[in-house]
Design a protein that fits this description.
3 helices
């Protein structure tokens, strides 16, 4: 977590033929792009001249390259807007203390980006796609 949190939509897992999220990682589209986002955040956070006294954080979700999966996962980006007093728990039982998502990077596919843009627009959350 950081002072400013950026959301990320990446196809971490490959979609299956039945349009469900698979178990196989997506080494070509998902993993390198996540690494690039996290590297960029680290570089910004380490340079005191870029954003002095401000740290960036990330909330990354798996789209599996599916618009339905992306829309469901993107609800994490707007939970704070819906209930600002709520605390959410990660799978390791650690409280996230979700903060407002300042913007979202992704998705990788046009269908994913379009579906998510409709949701994020309702909450005035900006979205930049890296590939669609």
């Amino acid at each position: 977590a950081g002072d400013i949190t950026i959301g990320g939509l990446f196809p971490i897992h490959q979609k299956q033929e039945n349009s469900e999220c698979g178990k196989s990682l997506n080494p070509d589209r998902g993993i390198p792009r996540i690494e690039a986002m996290l590297y960029a955040i680290d570089q910004i956070n380490e340079d005191p001249n870029i954003l002095p006294n401000i740290k960036l954080g990330a909330l990354i979700v798996d789209t599996c390259g599916l618009d339905s999966q992306a829309l469901e996962e993107s609800l994490d980006f707007v939970r704070y807007e819906m209930d600002q007093s709520a605390e959410y728990t990660c799978t390791d039982n650690q409280s996230t203390g979700y903060s407002r998502i300042s913007g979202v990077i992704g998705g990788s596919f046009s269908g994913v980006s379009q579906q998510v843009a409709n949701l994020l627009g309702l909450f005035y959350i900006s979205q930049i796609s890296y590939a669609s």
